[in-house]
Amino acid sequence: MFFRKKDEKKTNSESLLTDRSKLTNSVDANIKLFKDIFINDDTFVVRKFQNKYLKTAACCVVYLDGMADTEAINENIIQPILGGNLKEEISDGNLLEELQYKVIASSDVQESANINDMVGSAINGDTVLLVEGYTKALIISTKGWQTRPIDEPLAERVVRGPREGFVESLIINLSLIRRKIKNPNLKFQYKELGLTTMTKICVCYIEGLASEKVLKELVRRLDNIEIDGILDSGYIQELIKDAPSSPLETVASTERPDNVAGKLLEGRIAVVVDGSPFVLTLPFLFVEYFHADEDYYNDSLYASVSRLFRMVGAFVSILFPAIYVSLATFHQEMIPTPLLLSISAARHGTPFPTIVEAVLMGFLFEILRETGTRMPAPIGQTVVIVGALILGGAAIEARFISAPVVIISGLTGITALLTVKFKSFPIILRLVFLFLAFLMGLYGIIFGLIGLVIYLMEIRSYGVPYMLGTGSFDEEDINDTVIRVPWRQMPFHPRFAAVKNRDSHHRKQR
After folding, report:
1. How does pLDDT run across 108-149, given as a tens digit for each residue?
2. pLDDT per residue over 426-442, tens digit each?
3. What phi and psi values does residue 316 have, to the nearest 5 degrees?
4. 130 in a domain, yes or no?
5. Are the CB atoms for 155 and 120 separated by under 8 Å?
6. Measuring CA to CA, how many Å separate 334 from each of 91, 185, 338, 347, 411?
7. Which of 278, 297, 317, 277 is nearest to 419 (CA)?
8. Both 16 and 52 in a single domain?
9. To the nearest 10°, the Cα dihedral for 464, 165, 417, 437?
10. Are residues 116 and 204 in the same domain?
11. Domain assignment of residue 163, yes or no
């Protein structure tokens, strides 16, 4: 996929979108027009037919095989026109209007004279009905492509909670959200992105809760996207984030409808992309990295303890290797003597300094993790476990890597799995802190933490401070950040929500 400058010359396919001729009174001429548009496309189907009582009004349906439901076309369009006595059932007025309101059995029939609308509808699975003597056509909803069944997302499984997950169909995903929030204030706004793919997306929000400022900024960023194709919501997530070069996410993604419903009830906005099971939500705050869906289905005390474990796990996965390197290199006096002697004995005969060992083991663990992710699930888990045991044991026996570094790397990898929402950011931070510890010891780690806090404080997600609530002592801001207080103590919406009466109802409904 490529970006395109606004003044760049359009391709032949894009020129067709703007330079197509209008429909004429002749069905044959209109059929030729559609065939010229879908030239060399074997899925393009033309079915011409005529009722015996209306010999002057030849009809024709055009659709794309595989996208439209042929059974619906036969039963709802062709059969009513061919099988009925149209001469007695309809008047001599506008035949197109009579067919639309009295003959065709479909819940969605629209009259159109725009050839671009007809082509776009046909590509999306609808059927276009052409009638002799009319420069307009009927667009009839006959979408019939196959979608996978609704199932629980593999990456966001829960012990307690709904088992539904988004699929690749935009309409099904919107229905899953609508089932959670049965409120007329829930608004859906369609857009099309991708100069070639023309992918349909939907902006979802609750009117009165979502911030108008955030909504306008989102629409502005979406309108400024100029790219050939959108195949997944990840394209949009990268293009609309606040800091494009930052490894941190300012736009979240999820496969769970209950998660999206909870975000909408907080005043956030969701972006649903046709063809993708991942729905985007924004604004996104740093504390949400440590939140899980089950936090809102379990007891508040248990949820708070679990959330604290995730935060400690993130801290350990990022800083533990750096702390070991700093202690082993600069601050041996801080290590208890028996432990120091054990570490010294374990490192005896190893050829590399501590920093090199830590980097190599971190690199090895990331290779195993990536291998386990890309391979089929049963084989991937076996490869990771066996690979870690064999390679770790062999490295220790061969005096290639010291045993303490293997233990620390394993603990780092395990604790990193507690916060699965973190992606590349912990890996980058781990390397940065490792080199700071190698250069300046614990002082380097302290300086790195100061710089990290300053960096996080500067980030904004659609104008909302990234660290909102983490540095506040206001009960309204911290009741769902580091811990989750009981529901009775959470009657307010977040400060970035546009709700006028903040204590109108509970802030989360997940």
Report:
1. 888 888 888 888 888 888 899 988 888 888 998 888 777 788
2. 888 888 999 898 888 88
3. -65, -45
4. yes
5. no
6. 97, 60, 12, 18, 21
7. 317
8. yes
9. -30
10. no
11. no
